Structures are given as C-alpha cells and as structure tokens.
Amino acid sequence: VMSILLHGDAAFAGQGVVYETFHLSDLPSYTTNGTIHVVVNNQIGFTTDPRMARSSPYPTDVARVVNAPIFHVNADDPEAVMYVCNVAAEWRNTFNKDVVVDLVCYRRRGHNEMDEPMFTQPLMYKQIHKQVPVLKKYADKLIADGTVTLQEFEEEIAKYDRICEEAYTRSKDNKILHIKHWLDSPWPGFFNVDGEPKSMSCPPTGISEDLLTHIGNVASSVPVEDFKIHSGLSRILKARLEMTKNRVVDWALAEYMAFGSVLKEGIHVRLSGQDVERGTF
C-alpha cells in the first residue's frame, strides 16, 4: 500500500495539519512508511500573491522540517513529471520516508464560475492566456516525433469527449439521490434498503464483579517487590485500592477496568496521545 496526498500550493503552506502530520510521519505508532505528497502549485493559491501568502520562497518548504526530498517539476512537461513521480515512488519504496512532488503549473480559469482572476492577477493572466495548453503542446511534440499520428490523437480526444458526454446525458436520467451511494463504504448489513440504519443492538459487555475486583487490585499494586515508588503515586494507588474495596469507581479506575477486561480476553490495547507515555491515564 502506498499513501498519496494531493495538496494545493496555498493549502500546503498554510494549513497547520500539513505541518502536524509531517511531524507524525516518522513516529513508530503513526508512520505510513512514507507518504507521497503531490502539490498542484498554480503559483497563486486562490488569488493571493505568494509574497502575501507565506514567508518562504516555495510552498513546499514546510516539508523541509523532516528533510523530505522535494522535487520541483515543470508540469508543462509530462515526461519530466512522470520521471519525477517514478523517482519519488522509488525513494519512498527504498527509504520509507515522505517525499514531495511540486507540480509547478498555472490555473487557466478562475477559482470557480464567479471568479475572474484578471481582477487580482492581470499580468500573470495575460501570460497564461498566451500559453499553449499542455495537451496541445505534448500532442504536437509526439506528432512531430512520429510517435502518434494526428488522426490517432484526434480519435483519442473524440473517445474521451464521448465518455464525458454520455456520462452527462446519463446523469440527467437520475431523478432520485440515494444518500448511501455517497458514502465511501456503505457498511454491508448496517443499512436497510432505504438507507436507514437497521435497529442497533449491542452484545452484552458486562463482566463479573470478581473480575472487576481482580483488575482493581492489580491496578492498585506495584509489579516488583520492594520497589520504591514516588510518594505521590503511592497515594494514588492506595486510594485506588480503597475504591476497589468499597465498590466505587472514578474515571481512571473505570478506564483501567475497561482496558484490563479487554486485555484479559487477549485483545491488544494501544493507547496514543501526549499524556500516555508519562502515565497520566
């Protein structure tokens, strides 16, 4: 399995979650063994000049925090893009570390139907309107090389247009929207035919009081004999033992009993979070 994340240039530089997940990327419990980040870099994000949007030259500089290799590639050159993507996949496969592909490109039209980029980026958009689209540029090269003929190219374009037109026509026949079709994975057996959840029933999860007492006693004890523990911790353990004797629980003891009962059934429990290692929970 190889994870691939697709980013916009402004989002890559500006969203905290990008920086946060880079910092998690090499932790033993969180690593994906290398994610390939593809940044579609149209050089203006939504419509903001880069110098008003970030403090570093490249939107991808945030990846330098984990020394991830960053490949800047001209997206008008499809073969260069393919080459760089192969190198990125090979890097990830060899070193199991994150890698970034920065597709330096442009956005021909507005951010949406209402957006006119000429208002905010007149000079850039004058240049963009002069640009030969990448498809035509590459097709001309392949035809000049004799790799494909003009007829083959036109047939491919017609075939693709036909697929889009047919799908568009079919979409008009849909009169009802089934919400469950929009779910990533409609859990089999979870919904009935109308998309409503079936009646929910939970198997009984209760355990005997003897087992709870046993877990409470273990959770209040020190694993090694004559082991000198911190007096503050000693007080906590004594209080926990008292609670177990008096058939009372607080949140912490309840958690212990929940984890303990699951562990007793041979099920692995992994806790994660900042406070876990120092034993707050």
TrEMBL record:
Molecular functions per Gene Ontology = oxoglutarate dehydrogenase (succinyl-transferring) activity; thiamine pyrophosphate binding
Q: Which domain of life is it from?
A: Eukaryota
* Keywords per UniProt: Oxidoreductase, Thiamine pyrophosphate, Transit peptide
Q: Which SUPFAM superfamilies match?
A: Thiamin diphosphate-binding fold (THDP-binding)
Q: Which GO terms are recorded in the biological process aspect for this UniProt protein?
A: tricarboxylic acid cycle
Cellular-component GO terms for this entry: mitochondrion; oxoglutarate dehydrogenase complex
Q: Where is the Dehydrogenase E1 component domain?
A: 2-179
Provide an example Pfam family for this protein.
E1_dh
Q: Which cofactor does it need?
A: thiamine diphosphate
InterPro entries in the record, alphabetically? 2oxoglutarate_DH_E1, DH_E1, THDP-binding
Q: Which family does it belong to?
A: Belongs to the alpha-ketoglutarate dehydrogenase family.
Q: Identify this protein by name.
A: OGDHL protein
Q: Which organism is it from?
A: Campylorhamphus procurvoides
